[in-house]
Every structure is written in C-alpha cells, then in structure tokens.
Inverse folding.
C-alpha cells in the first residue's frame, strides 16, 4: 500500500480559515490568464473566421462583378439589335416613332423609349422618359455615343442603355437587374452558410486539436500528482511525437532522479537502523542478564544499571520508530488487515500499553462497530497516544470509544489526558517528527522517541482515518487526541447471535 | 524443564551469540553455538538439538538455506532471527520451514518464551480421541502420526500441533488469534502470518489439491476450519 498526500492532521483553531480568506481575495484581484486550450480554440476561431470572411468576400465580389458585367453586355447587345430595328422602322422617314415602338412591343420588348424629332415615344407603363437619368440622355443625344447607367425605377434596379440613331433620334431601353440581384442574393446566402459551417467545423476541429494538444499536459499533471502522492515509480509513456518526447523524457528523468534520491534517503535511514539493531540486541540482552542479578549489585551499581536499562529501552524505541518511519518514507508499508470489533480491540490494545489500567469508556452505540485494521499497527497508535499522555499529559489518561454521529460510518478513539493541554498553535506541530513543542522545558527529559505522534499520524492515515488534537470533552485542563477511523455498525448482523 | 534440553544457536555476531548463550543457560538449557551455516549443519547432525535458533544473515549458506537443509532430515522446531521485520524476510523464513520468528533486538524473556512454547508443542493437551478420521485424512495424536489415504505424511511438530488443535473441534471455525494462542502461545497481537504460512504448508502435505483445499478450509474474515 502506498501513502497518499491528503492532509490528515486537522486542527480546530481558526488560523487556517483566515489565511484562506485572504488568499481568496488575492485571487479575485488577479486576472486569470487564459488556458492553453482556450487559447488554441480562440486562435483557430479567429483564423477560421478571417479566412471565411476573406474567401466569401472575394468570391462574392468576383461573382457579382461577373454577373453584372454579363448582364450589361447582354443588355448592350440587345439594345444594339433593337436600335437597328428601330432605325429601320424610322427610315422613310416616318412621321412618328409609334410604329417602331409597336414593332418592338410585338417582339416582346416592353421597356423601350425612342427619342425622335424632339419628342419621346415610350413603350409601356412606368418606363417613361422622366425615369431616364439626365446624364445618360445628355450623353446619348448630345454626344451621340452609346452609354449605359444603373438606375432605380419605382424601387426596381434597372440598367438603362442608350443608343444614338441617325436622323437626330436615339433609342433607350431599360433592363431589369432583379434576376441578377436574386442570383447574387442566393450566392450571398450560400457564402454566409458556407462561412458559418467553416466556423463551426473550425470550433469542432479546434476543440479536438486543443484536447489532443493538452492531453500530454494532463498526463504529465496526473503523473506528477501520483508521484507527489507517493507512487514514485509512475512514468509517462514514451511519446512518438518528437516535440512531446522531450517533455516525457525529461519528466521521466526527473521522476527517476527523484525516486532514486528518495529511496536512497529512505534506504539510508533503514540501513542505519538495521546496523544499530545488532549492537542493540547485545546491549539489551546484557542488561537483562545484569538485571536478573540485580540483587547481587551494590546500591550505586544498581542505580547505574537502572539508568542504563531505561536509556537502552528508550534507544530501542527510537531505533524501531526510525525504522518504521523510514519504511513509510520508502512507501514500503503494507497493512495486514483484519475485521476487528472496535471496543474489544481498544480494550486489548490498552491492556498491553504502558498504562494497562487506563480506563476505557465505551460511548453510546459504540458496542457493535467493526473496523478493518492492521491490529499491530493500530495497537501501536493507541500505545503511542497513551505513552504521550503518560509523558506529557500528567501521567493519567482515559480512553473513550465514541460514535460521533449516527449514520456517519466513522468511530472516534479519544485519548484524553490531564496535562496542560496543547495550545492551538502547536496542535498541528505535535504530529511533526521530533516535535518538542514550544515549551521545551515542559517536555524536556521525556523518554519518548520524538517520533511517536508522527507515527500515529502515518498509521492512521494508512488506515484511511485522521487524527487531531482538541480540548477535553468536559472542558477541564488537558488534551484529547482523537483518532477517527472508518467503521461499520454491525448491530443488525449480530442481532440474535451470541457476541462471544 | 528437562535438564538436557539442547539449543543450537546459529549467529555470526559473536557478542549476540554470547549474550544469547548466557541468557538461555540462565533458563537451564544447554547451548550449542555455531557461527556459520556449515558449522551448524555439522553440529546438528552430531548433537540433534531440540530447538534451533537461526539468524537469517549468515556468511556462506544463509539462514533460509540452512533452515531448508535441516527441514529435509528433521522436524525440529526452528526459530528464525531477523534484523529486518519486513514482510518479505519473515514470510520467506516461515516458507523455508521456520516455526516461529523473532526480530532483533529481542528480549531474553521473549526468546525464552518462544522456545518454551515450541518445546511444549510436542504433544497437544488432552486430545480426546485416539484416532480422528476426516474422509481420507486420519490423525493418530498419541503416535504423532497423520495418514493421508493410508500413507503416512510427515509433518513438523508445529504443523502437527496445528492440525490436532483444529481436529479437537471438527467443523468449528478457529480464528487466527485462537490458533496463535493455542499453538504458538501468543497473545491477541501475535502475527497472523504465522498461521497463514503454516496452514499453506500443511495443505501442500495433506491436501490432494492444495489450491482447492477440502480439509483445511479458509472461512473468509473469520479463520480456518477442519472438515472431512
């Protein structure tokens, strides 16, 4: 089993809330930069829009000028032809242009106008002489050159073409541009549609592309998190992409270096402890041999042996704790879990601790709680907390087993002492390794290893629980160390069965 | 305590060996010392000690190998002594045939208690029947014999004791703690791996298919049960 990084040690003072509050304000002031994915998306979107607009604009421009030009050419050609017909009709010379107009109407030419002998003869309806722009009339009649102009007649776009004729005459004809407009309108619509589709496609492509582009970053982030969480052998998969291979290679190099270093440090601590075990075995064994002959010793020698023996015991605890904590650091701790009845387990654990007579008070509903735990490690937790109460908590303690709230699948083991308590600012620190607290004098001369509570925190975390310090439940002087563990109420299963 | 109980201690560290020897002699036992596996094998064949204490880290033949060598010819109780309480070493030691283990630094009292428990284990207390039969498995406690389909199976003393404890109450589920207490003399906080490894070894000897045991059955979350 590997360790995780969630903080387990909670403190019930309010310092943290304040700092969080400040941080919140600070964050709100700072503008968040855009993420890589959003930037890729935006770039794609801007590019696609610009491209779509440019293409559509060019296409529309070309198409419209082409269509209009064709229409103009056709109109000029038709005018030229009709002008010749009119010229023929006027030959004679005819007294009026009416027969010529009639001839044109019979061909289906409706929008014709003829200037003949200083008067206008018009075809039908609205297309009268006053609809002709003066500039066109001037050009055709006065300058006697063919000309054309785009003009509005009753809200309809027309091209008016003028053709000078012999004998002081001129021929004008209107051609509707409605057809052209509607063609252009449908071209415009198609282009807008095409542009929209392009942009939508660009968004889709950009989303996929940005996701793909960011994926290695996500993988790297996950791997980094895993490493931070203790899974030191996490590596990124080899990447075929030469640009990203650099990232994954250097990431993996970093991870290897980190792993090597952490393992080396952990191995060193572990090796040191192992090397210390052999002389310690001799020391402890020899002292036991002397202690067995204690009565034969002179008083002063007996006193010295007692001192020696208590310090060897302390040294032994220190070495064992160091070894244990180095195993945590190496991520080499595996739990051997059993299903245990909480109250029974706590009573057993207290009975083998340094203060076996410590009262165990069982709270409401705590009787039939089942925990899944490594019994030896969890017994160490209780033993260490009782040692802590013995050394720093006035030498007496109570252990309470409580269920904090019905329905929540947790149980609390509270070890309460009668010492001076732990001030708020030290409540987190006491779980640090070799933490002696601010009041060094108060804790001086203790015979703990300085690792006891740090080990408690590690063990509890490995069991999926948390540990923290609070005031005693009855608000008298002293500290309460609370271990919260996942637990299951099995009263229903035990109903009607003999609990023994 | 029998006066001529002989304990062979195999340890390359002379100081530890001396302390152990003194402590065990205080308990009235005769101590044979060996500083290497090779020396231990020689002493073992000559003196046939009652208990062997083996340090895992030995020059030359290591503790595991020594244990396996001894196991080939003898069912003498073996205690492994290790400077590492890593799961790997402990399980490997038990797999090699050790009956129990101790981690350095140990107390003399603890060492004596372990040896005493092993010596006590030769015959289980008050087995009611002269012969217990579980299908093709037959146990004769008084003779220390186990027959599997009529052929005698060779068990170590600890394996035999474990089997007899469960045979006393056929069909009853024994928790690991109960077995640790009855067979090894441990309290509530004994190491359940001792039971697990011994059960595994027992199965390879008495089960036709050790992967699907018929006699020594695991009851999940509770322990083990002996059935026919």
């Amino acid at each position: 089993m590997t360790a995780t990084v969630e903080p387990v040690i909670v403190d019930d003072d309010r310092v943290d809330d304040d700092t969080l509050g400040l941080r919140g304000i600070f964050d709100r002031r700072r503008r968040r930069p855009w993420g890589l994915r959003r930037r890729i998306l935006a770039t794609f979107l801007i590019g696609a829009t610009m491209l779509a607009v440019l293409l559509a604009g060019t296409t529309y421009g070309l198409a419209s000028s082409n269509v209009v030009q064709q229409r103009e050419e056709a109109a000029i050609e038709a005018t030229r032809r009709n002008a010749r017909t009119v010229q023929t009709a006027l030959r004679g010379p005819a007294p009026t242009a009416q027969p010529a107009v009639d001839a044109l109407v019979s061909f289906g030419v409706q929008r014709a106008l003829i200037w003949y002998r200083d008067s206008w003869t018009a075809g039908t309806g609205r297309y009268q002489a006053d609809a002709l722009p003066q500039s066109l009339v001037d050009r055709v009649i006065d300058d006697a050159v063919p000309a054309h102009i785009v003009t509005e007649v009753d809200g309809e776009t027309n091209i008016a073409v003028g053709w000078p004729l012999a004998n002081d005459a001129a021929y004008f004809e209107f051609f509707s541009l409605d057809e052209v407009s509607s063609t252009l309108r449908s071209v415009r619509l198609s282009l807008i549609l095409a542009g929209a589709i392009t942009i939508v496609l660009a968004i889709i492509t950009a989303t996929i592309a940005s996701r793909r582009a960011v994926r290695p970053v996500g993988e790297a982030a996950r791997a980094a998190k895993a490493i931070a969480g203790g899974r030191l052998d996490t590596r990124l998969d080899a990447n075929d992409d030469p640009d990203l291979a650099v990232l994954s290679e250097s990431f993996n190099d970093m991870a290897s270096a980190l792993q090597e270093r952490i393992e080396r440090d952990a191995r060193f601590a572990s090796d040191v402890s192992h090397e210390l075990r052999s002389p310690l075995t001799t020391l402890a064994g020899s002292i036991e041999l002397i202690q067995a002959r204690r009565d034969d010793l002179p008083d002063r020698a007996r006193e010295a042996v007692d001192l020696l023996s208590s310090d060897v015991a302390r040294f032994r605890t220190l070495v064992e704790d160091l070894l244990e904590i180095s195993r945590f650091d190496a991520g080499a701790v595996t739990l051997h879990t059993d299903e245990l009845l909480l109250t029974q387990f706590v009573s057993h654990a207290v009975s083998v601790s340094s203060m076996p007579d410590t009262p165990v008070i069982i709270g409401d509903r705590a009787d039939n709680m089942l925990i899944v735990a490594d019994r030896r490690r969890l017994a160490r937790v209780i033993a260490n907390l009782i040692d802590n109460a013995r050394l720093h908590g006035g030498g007496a303690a109570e252990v309470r087993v409580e269920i904090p709230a019905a329905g929540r699948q947790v149980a609390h083991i509270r070890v309460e002492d009668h010492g001076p308590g732990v001030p708020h600012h030290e409540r987190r620190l006491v779980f640090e390794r070799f933490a002696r607290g601010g009041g060094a004098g108060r804790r001086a001369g203790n015979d703990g290893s300085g690792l006891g509570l740090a080990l408690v925190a590690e063990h509890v975390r490995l069991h999926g629980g948390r540990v923290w310090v609070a005031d005693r439940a009855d608000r008298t002087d002293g500290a309460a160390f609370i271990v919260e563990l996942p637990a299951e109420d099995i009263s229903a299963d035990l109903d009607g069965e003999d609990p023994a | 305590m029998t006066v001529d109980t002989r304990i062979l201690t195999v340890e390359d560290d002379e100081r530890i060996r001396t302390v152990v020897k003194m402590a065990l002699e205080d308990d009235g036992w005769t101590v044979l010392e060996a500083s290497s596996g090779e020396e231990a094998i020689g002493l073992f064949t000559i003196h046939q000690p009652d208990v062997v204490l083996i340090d895992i880290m030995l020059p030359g033949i290591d503790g595991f190998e020594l244990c396996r060598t001894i196991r080939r010819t003898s069912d003498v109780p073996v205690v492994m002594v290790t400077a590492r309480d890593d799961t790997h070493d402990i399980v490997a030691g038990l797999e090699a045939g050790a009956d129990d283990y101790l981690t350095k630094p140990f107390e003399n009292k603890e060492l004596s208690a372990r040896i005493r428990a092993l010596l006590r284990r030769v015959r289980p207390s008050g087995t009611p029947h002269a012969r217990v039969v579980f299908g093709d498995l037959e146990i004769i406690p008084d003779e220390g014999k186990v027959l599997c389909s009529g052929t005698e199976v060779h068990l170590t003393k600890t394996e035999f004791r474990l089997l007899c404890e469960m045979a006393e109450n056929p069909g009853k589920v024994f928790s690991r703690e109960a077995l640790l207490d009855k067979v090894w003399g441990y309290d509530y906080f004994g190491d359940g791996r001792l039971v697990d490894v011994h059960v595994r070894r027992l199965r390879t000897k008495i089960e036709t298919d050790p992967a699907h045991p018929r006699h020594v059955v695991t009851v999940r979350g509770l322990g083990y049960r002996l059935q026919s």
Remarks:
- The two ends of chain B are 37 Å apart (CA to CA).
- Chain B has a mean pLDDT of 87.
- Chain B has two domains: 6-120, 132-226.
